[in-house]
Amino acid sequence: MSVVQTIRGPIESGELGWTLSHEHLTAGAAGMERLPWVFDEAEAASLNIEALGRVRQAGIQSMIDLTPLDLGRNMGLFRRVAEADTGVHVVCATGVYRWVPAYLMGREPDDVADHLLRELRDGIEGTGIRPGIIKLAWDLEYRLHDGPAGFTPRANLERTARGAARAAKVAGVPISCHTLAADELGTPLLDIFEDEGLDLRAVTIGHSNDSQDPEYLLRLVRRGANVGLDRFGVLRGEEEMARRAQLALGLIRAGFAEQVCLSHDGSPYMRFGAPRPPNLDCWLPVPTWEVPWLLEHGASQDDVDAVMVRSIRRTFEAAAAMAAPAK
Prior knowledge:
The protein has one domain: Metal-dependent hydrolases (TIM Barrel, Alpha-Beta Barrel), CATH 3.20.20. It is 39% helix and 13% strand. It has nine helices and eleven strands. The chain has helices at 41-57, 75-84, 109-122, 153-171, 186-195, 214-222, 238-253, 285-296, 301-322, and strands spanning 3-6, 9-12, 19-23, 62-65, 89-91, 93-95, 133-138, 175-179, 203-205, 226-229, 260-262. It has a six-stranded parallel β-sheet. A three-stranded parallel β-sheet has the order 3-4-5. By secondary structure, it is α/β, with parallel strands linked by helices. The radius of gyration is 18 Å and the shape is globular. The longest helix is centred in the last third of the chain and has 22 residues, at 301-322.
């Protein structure tokens, strides 16, 4: 086992239990808490506490919140949720979202690693809450590579990925990646991580059930990485839900259940894009629809436990095994 940092403090990896691999208590932009017409901390906390209570009743024991600073990570919200003791372990993240922040543009990978390590080692914003995971996001911006040498979106994303790999190795934490599956961006990410000597078992390539190509997912898991089938909350009806479920079942049948994790990429208090009404059931489709679907279509209970428990635990334990010895 290994130690996993949560917003209430460290736990053993064996305590994680059924885990949702990619969620958000809130998401929007850094500094949105200064705009009261955009973000209300008390309302966000109330909605999250209720939503976490519902998902705990559905069997979920842990959740990974992949909201770094530039996506609107809010420490006041984390504190309120931690004090409520919902029964759900919440792991929060350091890292960067799709648009590398200006203060990291052009910096060398070691500078990026140092930036991430400050939060991983010292905690976030003086709260004592330490991240348990690193978040990276590669999307449409990776297509952009024309511009001043070294300052293109692609160059910044690649340097940030190298910095994240170096920080992960030192601190012994996993990396979870938002990716544009249509562009198969998990592949160049794994290439960089491999070049940096990262154990790919400590990596999750997220949003992979946006892909229409099961062979792409098989290429990722054959290299040792986890695949995050984590967009069951971005749905277009029963047919699309079943298509995404079939991707999970195919990987299970191919023998890769311990390299599959499930989630929604959802939030009960989303502040990203156009206003959305609160959704207290945003984290329920996996435990109440997807898991029963898998069991009904031939997955075993052990397969479900592999997907919901062992896959995530595996990433934390592989990461911890890489950690540099304390000096």
